[in-house]
Amino acid sequence: MPIATLLTNLYDIAWVLNLRGSDFPYSPIFMAYFFVSLHSAILFIEKDKLPDQVKGYLQELNILTKGYSDVWGFLRGMDWEVGKVRSD
């Protein structure tokens, strides 16, 4: 079973990754989910919105990118033990 967290707060994701976006007027946040475990980090985002510079930055940090809507299939495919998932 993985020890992991899924960040869903858009401000937290922007802050943790030190990234800014333009998905919302007058706000630097962007639509994404960020999954972090002991062994991997995955940013679920619309990949076509990422400039090459940001793609390189994420690769340097060993952060994988997947499609924004892929998050739910990814989570359903995880081997979660009963009673081990916490949602705040």
Q: In terms of topology, how is this protein built?
A:
Layout: E1 4-7, H1 10-17, E2 33-37, E3 41-44, H2 52-60, E4 64-66, H3 71-76
Parallel strand pairs: 3-4
Antiparallel strand pairs: 1-2, 2-3
Features:
single chain; 88 residues; alpha+beta; Creatine Amidinohydrolase, Chain A, domain 1; four-stranded mixed β-sheet; 3 helices; 18% strand; globular
Q: Give the overall average pLDDT.
A: 86
What Rg, in angstroms, do the CA atoms define?
13 Å
**Major sheet characteristics:** 4 strands, mixed
Proportion of strand residues: 15-25%
Order of helices and strands: EHEEHEH
Structural class: alpha+beta
Query: What's the CATH topology label?
Result: Creatine Amidinohydrolase, Chain A, domain 1
| Widest sheet: strand ordering | 1-2-3-4
Q: How many angstroms does the end-to-end distance come to?
A: 19 Å
Number of domains: 1
Please describe what this structure looks like.
The protein has 88 residues and is an alpha+beta fold. It has 3 helices and 4 strands, in the order βαββαβα. The chain has helices at 10-17, 52-60, 71-76, and strands spanning 4-7, 33-37, 41-44, 64-66.
Write a concise synopsis of the structure shown:
The protein is an alpha+beta fold and 88 residues long.
